Amino acid sequence: MTNHLAYDRLVDRFRLVATIGECASMLGWDAAAIMPPGGGQARGDQLAVLALLGHRNLIAPETEADLAAAEASGAWESANLGLMRHAYKRAKALPADLVEARAKANSNCEKIWRVARGEADFALVKPHLAEVLHLTRLSATALSEALGISPYDALMDGYQHGIGAGDVAPVFAAYEDFLAIALSEAERLQARHRDPVRPAGPFPIAAQETLCRDLAQRLGLDFNHARLDRSAHPFSGGTPTDVRITTRYAEDDVTSAILAVVHETGHALYERGLPPAYARQPVGEAAGMAMHESQSLIVEMQAVRSDAFLGWLGGRLHATFGGEPAPYGAENLGRLWRRVRRSTIRVDADELTYPAHVILRFRLERAMIAGDLTVADLPGAWNDGLHALLGITPPDDAQGCLQDIHWYDGAFGYFPSYTLGAMAAAQLMQAARATIPTMDEAFGRGDVSPLLVWLRTHVHGIGSRLGFNTIMEQATGRKLDPLAFQNHLRLRYLTPASAFGIDRGQ
Amino acid sequence: MTNHLAYDRLVDRFRLVATIGECASMLGWDAAAIMPPGGGQARGDQLAVLALLGHRNLIAPETEADLAAAEASGAWESANLGLMRHAYKRAKALPADLVEARAKANSNCEKIWRVARGEADFALVKPHLAEVLHLTRLSATALSEALGISPYDALMDGYQHGIGAGDVAPVFAAYEDFLAIALSEAERLQARHRDPVRPAGPFPIAAQETLCRDLAQRLGLDFNHARLDRSAHPFSGGTPTDVRITTRYAEDDVTSAILAVVHETGHALYERGLPPAYARQPVGEAAGMAMHESQSLIVEMQAVRSDAFLGWLGGRLHATFGGEPAPYGAENLGRLWRRVRRSTIRVDADELTYPAHVILRFRLERAMIAGDLTVADLPGAWNDGLHALLGITPPDDAQGCLQDIHWYDGAFGYFPSYTLGAMAAAQLMQAARATIPTMDEAFGRGDVSPLLVWLRTHVHGIGSRLGFNTIMEQATGRKLDPLAFQNHLRLRYLTPASAFGIDRGQ
Fold first, then answer.
1. Which of A10, A36, A430, B434 is most buried, taking the most CB atoms under 10 A from its CB?
2. How many C-beta atoms lie closer than 10 Å to residue A161's C-beta?
3. How many helices and strands (H and E) does chain B possess?
4. Which architecture, in CATH terms, is B205-343+417-494?
5. Which of A15, A19, A217 to mutate: most B Cβ within 10 Å?
6. Beta bridge pairs of residue B237
7. Cα gap A493→A158, rounded to integer Å
8. Do B49 and A20 touch (CB under 8 A)?
């Protein structure tokens, strides 16, 4: 008995599950941005209850019966039904006691990781990470059997549906080859120029906040449907009609707040641009974390850090904070905000070396999930791997394998999204520039709207109707192609005439 | 098969339902305090889903079976089980389609009420209020049958369990008699004195905010478990370990922000003082809305507005804002913040005339629920009733029967809580003063902790183990006795020597 009524019931059920997810998303934002610390324990319980209720409603027996019977009509419904079946399969594959044990182990390990990182003492967290890894591998195996893909791919699939290690490994290998030559060449070219000048503060925080808000608005964020707040670690959260971004401010530095805001605004614009007709349906969601990262990076790295936009932004900064005009010139800002420097810390890395950090983690987590690398051997493997990639060694584990929260909170298979996103951003920008010849003129007026219109058509408005690879193909004429990113880097960092402040913004 | 396992299962179930309620409470706070307006529609859906899930889990068939079988041991468990049975009865009495229809009608009517009040046009909202009343009466009848009490009492019971019109009517009648003499006498005495002087602003909002935060902290609020924000209408919300209060600030007035903060702090302290061992159980909740109001009013009206505390607070205000010291003297502040003035607006009313507003609404809503007053006759009945009580008539319906959100959002049976709370506050304060002779000395140092300790023992820590009347009896030696409130008013407003600034704070 195949029918459309079954599909309609599924739409209702997934709407319910998604609305529960929205509650969790808002409460998660609250916890990270504004909750008083004493509310943490109760909040953990609240989020656990919402997760339980979402899961319970998703795996209800009626879901299975309706999924078997449902008939969809048209591309959107068919894609939606496919994603529903996939979501059900993933949820059903994991026994409830394993889900619960993992949640507890992750939360416990994350707490101890904070202490271990503070004391640069890996031994402290080692047994807890081993437990997290053990339970993650059990989950990966269960998901692998249900989905018919490898355990590591089954984990990746949870963040970026349809992309696996087979897609990522050759792309990363090519980048490694590129970097082996490009890094020292970029450093050589950079050394030819004088060091950039850092604008002198102080930068009053109220003025920074006003500027950040104006900037987000100018990039296309509508504060009728958004908030900008402060948090220790900038992030974006909320729901498509109520997106919430955060940044952090320091009196003596204006860079950090602004670049975080433009990055998070990119994420927020993606959520805002998702197709409202399919809100709260799997097909109406963002097309995975790599695509999400591409949208933050196309705004931050491709648009805002372009010469043209920096020219406008520098003027705006100078008008706001006064002082010497020279540090706010596009050339100086470009050299300041696009500086190559080998760092042991991923979040401090520049655009060129960032992928090396991701490649390292991809390799290590894949080996851990495969059982080829034990937790005990992780610090050594980390340090050796980083040295091979960037020629530097962390002074301690706090600046090595303890630096990221991922893994310690159970997130394995997420890291590749960062670099897939950077590569997709470059490729999307190349395609957008090809169809909008006046793009950089608009950037020079601080106007990003032509790009936003293009992204709404080619990415945001598609939701998850197409997968990552198909979106890339339809938007750019080809699948993810790491050469677009390499070309972008070549023009920005490796062309003597254009490097550090005079690139033509390709 | 009577057993304790059934009780334990019920504890788990009610914990789940309460945790869902916590999610709704936090999201309700967010919506009222900080949500961007464009998030409203999605938030409505989220709250509706949480209400549905809470209700579904409460009325599950297992609940009924366990309630029939459960055995409790000890006073706390027995009270808890009794409250569980009561909550189940209430939830089960209402058919799901009626609950849904009411929610829609209330929400719709509230929206139109905002327009109608803005335009002082009762006709606009009349049919919508009639629909709300119709559905409320259907609910009241269903609840009445399930609980074996009158329809109006069944509505009151939802706000203040165990208190009905039979308790309230004689108390209100006595107050009406008292007021008939007291009001003009208070006005006569007040007229003998010169008018109080209003402190001259401006009062910078940042300084007000710091002062309000310090004041809340001094009253006992721990900001490790609380937030203070801004909203158009001050309120308190959140959960016992994460209470959230709001106030509003105006540059030219310091009274409004401060008095709202001390009121909401009273509510927040009650939540903070509930018994943690019974968190998320019916017995661990506050003992109804009248008791809640008593806790905000004992702080605002009894403690902070006492001569002793005003003496301290005036000094603090002058130290903060500077200017002439005279307006900040206890006597002037007392006359300013305890001024009797017949107002058509409830929220602007003083302590003495406020109950008249409540008595009017109690009488009218009881008649509407009984079917003795139609919506069409409401404006006239309102104006006549107010004139009989206070001798004044609203110039239009915006300042008459359109002034309060209650009724238009479906809240019938709530109004009596305000005045029951005021009376309970006076009676509790009288008892606390009798056991703590140094209370006013402490108030004179801005120290409310002796009162807070007493309230924690006699009210907060009891949760709902005892009902309103029993809490009053055990704390004060007698049931709610309106004379304590009248004595308080006599000393503050009707004693020539002590009125307006020199009362002995009884």
1. A10
2. 21
3. 20, 3
4. Orthogonal Bundle (1.10)
5. A19
6. B244
7. 34
8. yes
**pLDDT, mean over chain B:** 95
B140 contacts B152 by C-beta, under 8 angstroms: yes
Residue A204 backbone dihedrals phi, psi, to 5 degrees: -55, 135
| Contact yes or no for A20 and B223 at CB 8 A | no
Q: Cβ contacts (< 8 Å) between A242 and chain B: which residues?
A: 35-36, 38-39, 42-43
**Closest to A162 in 3D by CA, of A477, A501, A504, A473:** A473
What does the block give as tokens for A338?
């696009």
Question: Which member of B38, B224, B227 has the closest CB to residue A242?
Answer: B38
A16, A23, A241 ranked by CB distance to B39: nearest: A241
CA dist B29 and A37 (Å) reads: 17
In one-letter notation, the amino acid at residue B326 is A
- A456 — phi, psi (to 5°)? -65, -40
Q: Which helix (H) or strand (E) holds A11?
A: helix A4-33
Give chain B positions within 8 Å (CB) of A223: 36
**Proportion of chain A above pLDDT 70, given as a percent:** 98
Contact assignment for A30 to B35 by CB distance below 8 Å: no
What's the gap in Å between the CA of A19 and the closest CA on chain B?
6
**Cβ pair B330, B464 in contact under 8 A:** no
Q: Which residues contact A37 (CB under 8 A, 6 or more apart)?
A: B224
pLDDT above 90 coverage of chain A, percent: 94
Contact check, Cβ <8 Å, A224/B38 = yes
- Backbone φ and ψ for A405, nearest 5 degrees, come out as -70, -30
Using DSSP's 3-state secondary structure scheme, residue A219 falls into coil
User: At A409, which helix (H) or strand (E)?
Assistant: none
Interface with A, mutate which of B12, B16, B46, B229 (most A CBs under 10 A): B46
The nearest alpha carbon in chain B to A37 belongs to B224
Name the percent of chain B in helix, strand, coil, to the closest 5: 70, 5, 30
User: For residue range A241-267, what is the model confidence (pLDDT) as tens digits?
Assistant: 999 999 999 999 999 999 999 999 999
Query: Which residue in chain A is spatially nearest to B223 when comparing CA positions?
Result: A36
Rounded distance, CA B482 to CA A111, Å?
A: 54
pLDDT of residue B496: 76
Nearest-neighbour CA in chain A from B34: distance (Å): 9
How many Å apart are CA B217 and CA A294, to the nearest integer?
A: 46
pTM (2 d.p.): 0.94
Contact B288, B468 (CB under 8 A): yes
Residues B244 and B191: their CA atoms lie apart, in Å, by: 40
What is the dihedral angle through the alpha carbons of A455, A457, A458, A464, rounded to the nearest 10 degrees?
100
Q: How confident is the model at residue A193 (pLDDT cuts 50, 70, 90)?
A: confident
Under 8 Å between Cβ of A202 and A252: yes
On chain B, the residues whose CB falls within 8 A of the CB of A239 are 39, 42
Residue B75 bridge partners (DSSP): none
Task: Give the C-alpha separation, B414 to B290, whole Å.
Answer: 9
- Residues in chain B with CB shorter than 8 Å from the CB of A222 are 38
Query: For B45, which of A19, A50, A225 is closest by C-beta distance?
Result: A19
With CB atoms and an 8 Å threshold, state whether B242 touches A46.
no
- Rounded CA separation B346/B449 (Å): 31
Q: Among the residues of A34-95, which ranges form H helices?
A: 40-58, 61-69, 74-93
Euclidean distance between CA atoms A388 and A77, whole angstroms: 48
Amino acid (one-letter) located at B420: L
Whether the Cβ atoms of residue B294 and residue B28 lie closer than 8 Å to each other = no
B293 is a catalytic site residue = no
Calculate helix-pair angle for A40-58, A74-93, nearest 10 degrees. 120
Query: Which CATH code is given to the segment(s) A205-338+417-494?
Result: 1.10.1370.30
